Structure prediction request, 103 residues.
Amino acid sequence: MTSGDAKSLGAAVITGFKSKGLQELFDTGRTAKIGPRYHSAAILILDHLDAATDLKDFTGVKDFHELSGDRRGTYSMHVNGNYCITFKWKPPEVFDVDFEDYH
Prediction:
């Protein structure tokens, strides 16, 4: 499925990454910029982000939650350990997608 196909189905489209390693992982399925132990979980989350049609689609997925304080409007899903994929959502776009330990 291409981004154009996803958009016509009402699915989200990832339009911007903060993490170059995460973008490389999404585009090619591999990267040296993020440890290999995180790859499979991160790819599953990215695929979920790219296919979602509503924030409700993330309920119960990988400790999905909205951050608080000055990070309000940024959402997070747990990858492994303290590492999370964070993102902003403005339908149909998912943007500022990052791989970080914000704890």
